[in-house]
Amino acid sequence: MDFSIKTEIPGRRLRVKLAGFVPACDQGPFEAVLRSAPCISEAKVYPRIGEVALSYCGERGRERAISHLASIDAAAIEGMRAEYSFSASQHSHQLMLDLAWLTGTYLLRRWFLPKPLSIVLGLVAYRRFLVAALSSLGRARLDVPVLDAAAIGMSFVQLDPKTAGETMFLLEVGETLEDYTQARSEGALVDALLNVAENAQKVEGDLEVEVPLSSLAVGDVVAVRTGMGVNIDGQVIRGCAMVNQSSLTGEPLAVERTVGDDVFAGTSVESGEILVRVKSAPNETRLRSIVDLVKNADRYKSRRQASREALADRIVPWNFGLAAGVALATRSMTRTSAALMVDYSCGLKLTSSISVLSAMSQSADAGFTVKGSKYFDAVCDADTIVFDKTGTLTEATPSVAAVLSFDGWNEDEVLRLSACLEEHFPHPVARAVVRAAADRGLDHRERHAEVEYIVAHGIASSLDGKRVVIGSEHFVVGDEKVAIDEAQKGRIAHETEGLSPLYLAVDGELVGVLGIEDPLKEGVREAVGQLRGLGFKRVVMLTGDNGRTARRVAEEAGVTEWKADLLPEDKHAYVESLKAQGCKVVMVGDGVNDAPALALSDVGIAMGQGTAVAKEVADITLTDGDLSSIVTLVKLSRALARRMDRSFAQVMVCNSVFMLLGILGAVTPQTSSLLHNATTIGLSLSAGRRYRV
To answer: Residue 618 — very low, low, confident or very high, per pLDDT cuts 50/70/90?
Structure first.
């Protein structure tokens, strides 16, 4: 079995990340196989997130536990299934089982065993606390395991094994409840993300059909082109493409993938076209990428979350300082123990983490996916929002409203050749051209050579030895030097007024212009108004389109600042200038040409129907393309900040009160520990509540 060690408490516990998820029906048998090893005292399997938590004991317990886990295979799990009658498919079932076991063994030791044997078993149980503490001290760290071991040890020093047993029981119950609460929050997030639909271009004979990702099976063939994402694990069977694998390898440069090479879910095609045969179940690869997102959220912690967790670690030495002061002042071991029984670390870390997981889960339900809490922070602090136009403020399904022909060509010939070139690319305008040709019943059999997609400019190819280009005026007239006379300019201006013109030229001669109608998305003006009401000082639109079209869209959307005729580097430079002015910038876009600006902004938001490259560099993805989701995102980000601040205050106040009551002798150390653990769980459950936005 393949796995990697995620975290560990030396001498006590391991948490490992498996290579994949665990089917719910295998959870119980898998745990039974794990517990069959004498070195493993406790085992928990978290199916949805593909993790296992192990408690081990005995000499060389760690090495033996790791060796046993590595030896487990599907046959071992299947062999245990017949003997295992209880399959815990829900965390709550496992929680009840764990609590029942902890309570039963504790009461057995306390009520039914002879006192000498009970003391011996108590010392054996204390060993794992002591080993964890010594390990921390060996690394020059004063942390929670040291606090726990010190508090329990003081009870043994006072020849009070009963109190020591109570303390260990309470700590184990608290730890079990904390694990459950954390796993439940992670599971809720995974479930929410699994409900987000994804599609693929399935090849069926000579046809391509857009199908749900979940409907694919091993052996199916899918097409992936420039700007599209690879959402399955498979092997290239035709074509060649430059694939961006930064999400898997961290390498920013795209790599060539051709026939026989493997490609993986979570990567994206920067240029080229490939056919890929599915090698593994899409649901498994999708779940893997979702779990990676959940687990990698720790890499993107906000300043607020990171500072809370750093404070939790820094405050532990002060617990020892306070305990030393109490010991000197009162000469009471009981009151000194009370200063050690309550710590702030668990509460601060758990409430912060669960608050973020809850916000990420609710984000997925609301139609956007957030990579980590730092981006909630960035949205909360932002004062400027920048929108791309096409596919962001305007509909993702533009249409061809006018076809102009020149140089002896007719409209059908212009539209047929345009569709033949554009069908290779996933951009909304390209789809509009292909759809217009299909509506006219125009067959556009390929006669041209391999096409070249020039980002943010257009497409170039050759036809019967002649160079063919289609794209913006900047590309066709400016870069390709295609001449347009005054009569043609006048006709184009008149017949494409308010439309976005797409120029087609063959061998340096203009043969046609397509007028693309790009209507504003429903609710955009309202969303822009709400964003201003939420405190955004500047709302800007950037577009590569011409000034006339940009002005019309900006006026309809209620945007007062806009820039037209921009290349990707121009958008990047504009965002850079905003940041130089001290603006906190949110950038929203959907295309390959938006990727540089998305990456530069404080937080980049990609539209869900946009290109995979844009979504790869973005920090947040809108799964449905509805701009009202951005309004919800801003409100949710601010609600998260308020909840984390409130939880911080509650943890600090409650635990300080419990510690003070114990030091004053108003409650026993065990009571203060019980109150501390109960409060930690209660605040964690509260942190996981749904946000009101």
So the answer is: confident
288 token code pair = 């893997």
Q: What whole-number distance in Å separates Cα of residue 521 and Cα of residue 533? A: 20
- Whether 404 and 513 have beta carbons less than 8 Å apart is answered as yes
pLDDT at 342 over 70: yes
Residues 302, 378: Cα–Cα separation, whole Å = 8
DSSP-derived secondary structure letter, 571: H
Non-local (6+) Cβ contacts of 525 within 8 A are 556, 557, 558
Region of poorest pLDDT, from 31-35, 87-91, 258-262, 294-298: 87-91
303-330 pLDDT, tens digit each: 777 787 778 778 878 878 888 888 888 8
Residue 433, CA distances (Å) to 32, 57, 424, 444, 509 in order: 59, 68, 11, 12, 20
Tally of CB atoms within 10 A around 264: 21
| Consecutive H or E run containing 493 | helix 486-495
The pLDDT tens digits of the residues spanning 7-42 come to: 787 778 888 888 877 776 677 778 878 888 888 888
Tell me the per-residue pLDDT of 257-293, one tens digit each, with 9 for 90 and over: 899 988 877 677 877 889 999 887 765 565 455 555 5
In 3D space, the residue among 673, 674, 572, 567 whose CA is nearest the CA of residue 617 turns out to be 572
Instruction: Look at the pTM and tell me if it is higher than 0.85.
Output: no
Phi and psi dihedrals of 13, rounded to 5?
-140, 150
* C-alpha span between 166 and 132 (Å, rounded): 19
pLDDT, one tens digit per residue, over 155-179 is: 787 777 777 787 788 777 767 766 6
Q: What is the spatial distance between Cα 126 and Cα 317, in angstroms, rounded to a whole number?
A: 22
Q: How far apart are CA 411 and CA 402, in angstroms?
A: 9
- Tokens 């203009």 sit on residue: 510
Closest to 57 (Cα-Cα) out of 90, 14, 95? 14
In this predicted structure, what is the pLDDT of residue 88? 35
For the cut 60, the answer to whether the pLDDT of residue 196 exceeds it is no
SS3 472: coil
Pick the closest to residue 559 from 542, 575, 535 (CA basis): 542
Separation of alpha carbons 571 and 585, rounded Å: 13
For residues 248 and 266, the answer to whether their CB atoms sit within 8 Å is yes
CB 245 within 8 A of CB 270: no
Segments in 208-302 forming alpha helices (H): 246-249, 282-296
> Could you list the active site residues?
388
- Tokens for 315? 């405050």
For residues 288 and 57, what is the distance between their CA atoms, to the nearest angstrom? 31
Six-digit token string for 64: 């033996």
191-to-188, 195, 429, 633 alpha-carbon distances in Å: 5, 7, 34, 19
